[in-house]
Amino acid sequence: MRALFTSILLSVAVMGTYAQPHETILLNATVIDGTGGAPQPHTAIVIRGGKIANITRGKIRPAADVIQIDCSDKYIMPEIIDCHTHVGNLKGTSTSSDNYSSGNVRRQLLHFQDYGVGAILSMGTEQPLGVAIRDSSRNGLIPGATMFSAIYGFGVKGAMPPEGMGMTHIYRPTTPEEATRQVQELVAFRPDVIKMWVDDFYGQFSKDQIMKPEIYAAIIKEAHKHNIRVASHLYHISDAYKLVEAGVDAMAHSIRDAVVDDFLLAEIKKRNITYIPTLSLDEFAYAYEDSPGWLDDPFFRNSLEPGVFEMITSPAYRDRISKSTVTPQEKTALDVALKNLLRLYRAGIPVVLGTDAGASPIRAQGFSEHMEMELMVKAGLTPLEAITVATGNGAKFLHIDNTRGTLQPGKKADLIVLDKNPLEDIRNTRTISAVWKDGIKVSGGPIGH
User: Fold this and answer.
1) I need a labelling partner for 63 at 20 to 30 A (CA). Which of 156, 301, 369, 437 fits?
2) Lowest-confidence pick of 54-63, 124-133, 241-250, 333-342
């Protein structure tokens, strides 16, 4: 009886936690809706049943039990969608498969949510229990950012991606036939995309250790038979040429060794390939050689795992970065990546936000998404364009744009309330005062508003 009584109490508590008023109205805000349209000042968002019922500047006749919240001088935008992350393996200053647990993944989903990230695509580094977590998250059974996943990615034996970084459940086929069988096995887990690694990791691996074209062609061919898209980790323009020809659906990083020429640009556009630039990955690779302006910002500090701040500010770490033979290449890589992003974006190629956050302790989950938008603006996009890439475009890529990604009637009331105008300074996306999910305020942001 005691167990039954406890169960009833817990059920009542949970129902109370998620109970919704009949109607909530956010009044007098400036709405940036994620469609790319102009901001809407002095606007009200009417929320009913967890969805947006209306967005209007006209008079409103509220229901009897309506809750009205004055958002004067506030800016409201959709939650951010990160289409290239990793969860579970990061804990403290390490990334390891030993860190992967249900508790760790769920903790990180809540962390993303505090930073206004409403959905993530985890790119192919799950452990077996990650499949159930992904399904529970997508069905709304656990709180935090909604998790999408490539489940288990495809790499090369003894090469990319390094097992030492926690990437242990990776398919590493040696023949096209083996690759085909492994895709067929993966299909049973219903991956949202399939992820491949095609890279030499800054020359760490030889040409013989890069995934061969006949293998990734087999992966793409079999995936397409099952209507699953394929995204590839890449770096070199020479690999991009071959991947485009093989039918890849998304480039999961920037091309960073050369500016994209007109022929490749036209092919990428013709084939409607999505570009996920992950600019912040390249910035973080060397940023801590000095003291970046955001180093002591609480919004950044609170995004870090325990011990990481001490690690990245230590003289030993900074000395290692300054002496690394790869650091000059990483700086050049970011410069090329910025140029390629602008070139592809202006050509009308689909661009979505991705960060590779969580694959390394120095790429902070939550902060990276805001850094990514700042770098997009540095590349030449307007703040409004960067926000659209980070919200509406990501929803389209994940095929969830019928329910989220933009603030429009009929869609989920998933939104971020900001204290300052991000269209004047994109860094103002960091002034989060509230995060709403399904019409309920679920967070006051990461720094204790």
Assistant:
1) 437
2) 54-63
